[in-house]
Amino acid sequence: METESAQVAGQENKRRARKGQQEEAFTPKEMGVSAEEILRFIERVERLEEEKSSLSDDIKDVLAEAKSRGYSAKALRAIIKLRKLDPEERQASEAILDLYMNAIGMI
User: Which of 12, 15, 32, 75 sits 20 to 30 Å CA-CA off 6?
Assistant: First the structure.
């Protein structure tokens, strides 16, 4: 079922065709679009998505192994996240967390 806007657009195109006022169409090459280049970009992204999925599965396996040995996967993930931060940024973040926890009586 066509939407109302699609019907209106279709009617407008028919009207232009009857009046001989069809819009000028440009080819992809005229617009600077290369199908080969677009396809290469798409294929590169697809390969990277596959690699990302594979790496994600590997990370899950490592964390599952750590969990099977008695370690907390949640704690390991938190440490990994903290290690990515600059030491000063981490200290500032921890200070704010302590302040807020103290303010609500958690400490």
Answer: 32
Can you say how many angstroms the Cα of residue 92 is from the centroid of all Cα atoms in its chain?
28
3-state secondary structure of 107: coil
Cβ contact 64:73 at 8 Å: yes
Is residue 85 within 8 A of residue 93, CB to CB? The reply is yes
| The model's pTM | 0.57
Distances (CA, A) of 5 to 2, 9, 11, 12, 14: 8, 6, 10, 10, 14
DSSP secondary structure of 21-67: -PPPP--TTTTT--HHHHHHHHHHHHHHHHHHHHHHHHHHHHHHHHH
pLDDT tens sequence across 34-90: 889 999 999 999 999 999 999 999 999 999 999 999 999 999 999 999 999 999 999
